[in-house]
From TrEMBL:
It comes from Camelina sativa (False flax). It catalyses: AMP + ATP = 2 ADP. It is an enzyme of class 2 (transferase). One of its GO terms (molecular function) is kinase activity. This is adenylate kinase. SUPFAM superfamilies: P-loop containing nucleoside triphosphate hydrolases (SSF52540). PROSITE patterns: ADENYLATE_KINASE (PS00113). Keywords: Kinase, Nucleotide-binding, Transferase.
Amino acid sequence: MTGCVHCISPPPVTLYTPRTSPSSASRSSFSFSGDAVHSLYRVRRVTRSPSIISPKFQIVAAEKAKPLKIMISGAPASGKGTQCELITQKYGLVHISAGDLLRAEIASGSENGRRAKEFMEKGQLVPDEIVVMMVKDRLSQKDSEQNGWLLDGYPRSSSQGKALNGFGFQPDLFIVLEVPENILIERVVGRRLDPVTGKIYHMKYSPPETEEIAARLTQRFDDTEEKAKLRLKTHNQNVTDVLSMYDDITIKIEGNRSKDEVFAQIDTALSELLQQRNTAPSSLLS
Ligand code: AP5
């Protein structure tokens, strides 16, 4: 599925009935939200004469759709974290950010955290022996298994991808955010984080809503222009290897648009993926 989201061929017209709202039976009136996504009944077309106009669908199984497994990738400050906030809000997936796991490890004061910080300060990849098990353990937790996961910033090398593969973790979709390099540096240096809500801001593009929030915002230790350039260099050294691993399930998203426009592209892809799943014969459901 490489290429622009708009190039994905439309799925067959199909009717979905969310468990929470049995009456909202038309696709056009249905919007995915939170748990509802994971509670979809599979429905199947009833074969009857096409001349009969009333809807010809019946629920054939009350089985839950399998949870989505998504990876999101892109250069530093391409908007991965921002989009993950929006995706999890709508689709209820568990957001697992390799960078956040590493920062939590640093904050814990552990030896792994201390070592990780040495690499992060230089904009380099933290060694696999620290990152791989950290991510694998988080993916193995019950909430990720039950609700599906959204893996952000992993894998960043083919060895990381292979390791995850070896543990049996395969994504359904690999999202790549594409943003021109000259935009990325400005995004990095303007980024601020709210330690209370975890929300990501940008002093120009996504400023804090109130002065109270503005006063408590923090900046990441690697969000300087100098370190962003090092991170970008590391990204560029590894990106081709990583992309080649997921070629057949990759969707490239134009990331240099407003965050809502970027999300709209992702949303379309995820909705279509869910639709395809729910129309596939049981034997094809992955
Ligand atoms: P990590 O924390 O993952 O950093 P990163 O990949 O450099 O990505 P960022 O978090 O900087 O950016 P983002 O794409 O999430 O953008 P955001 O949404 O915040 O990793 C940090 C370090 O940890 C690495 O350098 C490495 O050392 C280590 N590491 C991590 N994973 C590893 C791994 N797998 N293996 C080994 N080492 C690893 O947006 C950025 C800014 O832009 C924000 O201010 C936001 O408000 C703004 N913005 C977002 N979208 C838009 C938009 N559409 N328009 C305008 N502004 C926008």
